[in-house]
Specification:
Elements lengths: L3 H15 L9 E3 L8 E3 L1 H9 L3 H12 L5 E7 L3 E6 L1 H13 L13 E5 L14 H16 L3 E5 L7 H13 L22 H17 L1 H15 L3 H24 L17 H10 L3 E4 L2 E4 L13 E4 L7 H16 L3 E7 L3 H13 L8 E7 L2 E2 L16 H15 L7 H21 L7 E2 L2 H4 L7 H20 L16 H10 L2 H10 L3 H21 L8 H25 L8
Parallel strand pairs: 5-6, 5-10, 10-11, 12-13
Antiparallel strand pairs: 1-2, 2-4, 3-4, 7-8, 8-9
The structure holds arginine.
Length: about 600
């Protein structure tokens, strides 16, 4: 279905052509003076140069042609050469009626689905999720949902960190505590125990302890590094222990991501790329892209046009150990083989941008991936506390995600004390609101920017917040429940009437932006555009709700029309919030 701007543009194209001007000047945009008009075309200003005429003259000619168009209530030429457009109410309502019968409310589904891998979440085994994992999970999940909604074939992969020093540290610490375990006996021939020698709470204590200890004790750190290499080169007992770490961790990570309403299609791990490393390195060497520098195997990735220093991409350390780079490159090999994607999007902390620049250049240069495949780094900014510094616990420690979520849920519950709900409903509702508060607070900011985590503001039921959006949806749900309770039948054959009120028109104009918003959010990887949309629509709807009688309207046709409009707003809002990963309760 054509979007509304496209329809308006069609008319303008006709007029530009008729008047003898190139139709490329007929571009239409939303008005930046909504007090004067709804849409505008600034093409006469640009055309003036080519045709050596005053812009206002050209604008005047266009307006002259379109003055009689039924689709415009008003079209005027304004100095120095703007064309201001206000739609005819019937034309607008007609578009809205088409939205109501479209499954995607007029949002075009792509005719050319791409296969897109989204690498997000960024969790590491053996380490609990902390606030730093909030952004990649929330942003990645939203982008995945948006891409899928448009019809792309999307694969969301958590790409667990399971192959680095953190495992070596845990092996080492476990060895210090329980040297008698069979995992450490190199002559052990039997079957290793099925039961892990630690629980998730043990791991959560062991890892930070070992990590801190290794910083103070170089010999301990060396031991851990050695254990990492031995794991990576296949020491049996260590592999068995590593498998236990993975099993215990994944179970807990799944629980946490479920709590966040974040769902991965794939639970791949860094280690899954290991089988692809030998051939990859062989090819890099044979093709001459990789060379030895100071004992290490590297690929130069700097380019002439660089304005900053881009160091070589290191593939193997001088001791033969593989690196984070090596794994990421091998993962590209693996993804190409398994999915042949046209895009891989990495949702990772923007502090890793130089690193990904190196990896991407290396992948292209060494032809691991063809030039046509897009490797995209979506670097997100830091979540800061009110003091403007990275969000920490009160005593300066790293805040666990679970603790943060529980805390917010508690505060939401506090606000909802007075509600007439049973315990189960109130808890479920509070957790939906809390999640919406956190996610919306995050997603409403442009991903690349740092933002302040302001819990009080985020959980407020008023203003540009998640709870406010949910509140609007709930309001519409209860309006529809009332319609049902009062046995009002909605007549589907009577279309939504041209609006009789300014607030109704504003709701319709907001709704018209749906398709463009979703597409822009995908093209620009910008869920914040969906947030802007839902906020504007919610605001428009709430004004409309306050100023008009909907269910109680004495005019039956108008009542039908307003109920249908409200229902459309509710459906669009619910779909949009779902793309953000939020879920609305029935009541709140
Ligand atoms: N686990 C990594 C970290 O904690 C993030 C992984 C990002 N994805 C990737 N393909 N490198 O920093």
């Amino acid at each position: 279905m054509k979007n509304i701007i496209g329809l308006i543009q069609e008319e303008l194209c006709g007029a530009f052509k008729k008047a003898g001007y190139n139709e490329k000047y007929a571009k239409v945009a939303l008005s930046n003076r909504p007090d004067l008009c709804q849409y505008q075309c600034n093409g006469a200003l640009a055309a003036a140069k080519e045709y050596h005429k005053a812009p206002i003259q050209i604008a005047g000619e266009i307006v002259e042609i379109l003055n009689d168009s039924e689709n415009f209530k008003e079209i005027t030429a304004v100095k120095p050469g703007f064309i201001n457009i206000t739609l005819d109410d019937a034309f607008l309502a007609d578009f809205i009626n088409k939205m109501t019968v479209s499954e995607t409310f007029g949002c075009d589904i792509t005719a050319e689905p791409e296969t897109v891998v989204i690498d997000y979440g960024g969790a590491n085994v053996a380490k609990p999720l902390h606030v730093g994992h909030l952004r990649p999970a929330i942003i990645g999940e939203s982008i995945k949902r948006i891409a899928r909604y448009i019809g792309h074939n999307v694969i969301g992969d958590v790409h667990l960190g399971d192959w680095g020093l953190q495992i070596g540290l845990i092996i080492t610490e476990t060895r210090h505590r329980n040297p008698e375990l069979p995992y450490f006996d190199e002559n052990f021939e039997g079957e290793y125990p099925k039961e892990a020698p630690f629980t998730i709470s043990d791991l959560e204590e062991i890892y930070p302890y070992a990590s801190a200890y290794s910083k103070e004790h170089p010999e301990y750190k060396e031991e851990a590094q050695e254990a990492t290499v031995q794991l990576q080169t296949g020491r049996k007992g260590y592999l068995a222990l590593w498998q236990h770490i993975i099993n215990v961790s994944i179970k807990d990570l799944k629980r946490m991501y479920t709590k966040l309403n974040v769902e991965f299609d794939l639970w791949k791990k860094e280690s899954d790329a290991q089988p692809y490393i030998p051939d990859m390195i062989k090819n890099m060497k044979e093709s001459g892209y990789a060379h030895i520098d100071d004992g290490a195997l590297v690929v130069d990735v700097k380019e002439e046009t660089d304005t900053k220093e881009i160091p070589p991409c290191m593939i193997l350390k001088s001791n033969g150990a593989t690196l984070y780079n090596t794994t990421d490159l091998a993962t590209i090999v693996e993804r190409k083989k398994l999915f042949n994607p046209s895009k891989i999007i990495y949702v990772v902390d923007k502090r890793q941008s130089l690193y990904f620049e190196q990896v991407f250049r290396c992948a292209k240069k060494t032809k691991i991936i063809d030039a046509g495949t897009k490797l995209i780094f979506l670097g997100f900014g830091t979540m800061n506390g009110k003091d403007g510094k990275p969000f920490k616990t009160r005593d300066g420690g790293i805040l666990r995600l679970e603790a943060l979520l529980n805390d917010i849920e508690k505060q939401v519950l506090e606000k909802m004390k007075e509600r007439n709900m049973n315990e189960e409903e109130i808890n479920e509702t509070a957790s939906k609101i809390a999640l919406a508060a956190v996610k919306y607070g995050d997603l409403s900011n442009q991903a690349s920017k740092d933002y302040i985590f302001d819990m009080e503001r985020f959980i407020s039921f008023e203003g540009n917040t998640g709870p406010y959006i949910l509140y609007t949806i709930v309001r519409i749900k209860s309006l529809l429940a009332k319609v049902k309770k009062e046995n009002i039948t909605i007549d589907e054959n009577i279309p939504i009437a041209p609006s009789c009120s300014q607030t109704g028109t504003d709701v319709m104009l907001s709704l018209c932006k749906w398709s463009d918003t979703v597409h822009a959010a995908y093209e620009e990887l910008a869920p914040h555009k969906i947030c802007q949309f839902v906020y504007e629509l919610s605001d428009a709807f709430n004004k409309f709700y306050h100023e008009n009688r909907i269910v109680n309207n004495e005019d039956i046709t108008l009542r039908n029309s307003y109920i249908k409009l409200s229902r459309l707003v509710g459906n669009v809002l619910e779909t949009a919030t779902n793309l953000l990963g939020l879920e609305a309760p029935e009541r709140m």
